[in-house]
Batch of 2 targets.
Target 1
Amino acid sequence: MLYDMPTRRPKDRPKHLPLKVKYDNSTDWDIAYVDRSICPFLILMPLYDLPDLLTGEVTTENRSAATRRLWIRGGGFWKDRDAHLQWLCEALRARQVMPTGTISTESFCLTIAKIAHSFAVAELGWGSFTPFVCDMIMKRDVDNRAEFIGGGEGSHEPSTGLHELGFVDCSDPSLIAVKVHLFGVLGTPTYYVVVGQKTLPSAEV
C-alpha cells in the first residue's frame, strides 16, 4: 500500500490501519483505526543467515521461516515524522501513539521464492535448470527454508530503484542463485535464493 503496488485483490486492501494510542485517562494501549493515507506503520522483514547451498554449511538451529531477528522501520511519506505523530495525537486526543506492524515469515519466504524462480525462468528459459523451490512454493512448505533461502544481514544504503533482481555467483558453478531486493529505496535487506541447478546439455548420440 505504501507504493500503491498492483494486486489481484484490491478490495482486500484495508482502508484503515491499526494504530496504538494511549489516552490521558488510561495507562493501557488502545487501538484506533486510522485512514491508511495518514496512518504511520512499521515495515518488518525477517533476517536470516545466507542459504546453506551458498555457504556450504548446514544450519542446525532453525531451518524454517521462523526467526527472532527482524528488520524494522517506520513507514510513511512525511518529512517530519515526529510532527506527524504529534498531529495524530492532537487529532485523536491521545497523549501518545505508536505505529504497529505484522509479518507472516512463511508467506514472505514463499513470495521471495516465487519472485526468484520466476526471474530465473524469464532470464534463462524454462527447462534450462532443475528447479529447487517449486515444491516449496506449491506445497507451501518452508520447513527447509535454510537450504535455499536466506540473507537479510541488516540495513543497506537506499538504492535508486524500487526493486532489484539479479544473479549472484555461487562457489558451485552448477547452481543458480538470485538476489531479491524489495523496496530498496528504503534501505531494506537483500535476500538470496538458490533456485536450481543448471541442466547439462544432452550428449549427442
Note: The mean pLDDT is 88.
Target 2
Amino acid sequence: MELLHSLRFLGNEAVHELITPEENDINVAFNIIEHLIQSIYIMPKDLKKTKFKIHLDEYQKFENFIIESIKTSPSFDFSYSYSIKKLIGARGKISNENQSKFETILKEKISKDELDWIEITENTEVENINPSETFYRIKKVP
C-alpha cells in the first residue's frame, strides 16, 4: 500500500505542483504499475493454467471456487452427491477450521433459498461414510 501512496504523491507533485520527477523515480513508478497489472490481471489467469493449489481463505472465494470447478469440469455428474472435499477437489486447499465455517455458511444460504444451484442431499453412492458429513447435489450450472 505504501508503494501506491508513493506513486500517488509522485503523480500529484508532477501534475499539481509542476515538479518534474527524476528519471529513476519514473522508472520505479512504471515498475510498480507493471507489477500491479501483472498481479491483478495476468497472474490470476496464468495460475488457472497450472496445477497450483488455491488457498480458500474467504467464504466468497470458497463459493466461487466451487462454481468455477463445476463450470470447468467436463465430467461433472449432476446426479451424484458430493461432499465438500469432493467439490473442492485436489486444487482447493482449505483449513479444517475454514471448511467448517464455510460449510455452515453454505448450509445456511441453501436453507434460506439464496442458492438455487445446490441442495443438501442424502448420500447413497458411498458406503462407510462419516454420518455427520453433509452431501450436496448440484442442480444446475451456476
Note: The longest helix spans residues 23-48.
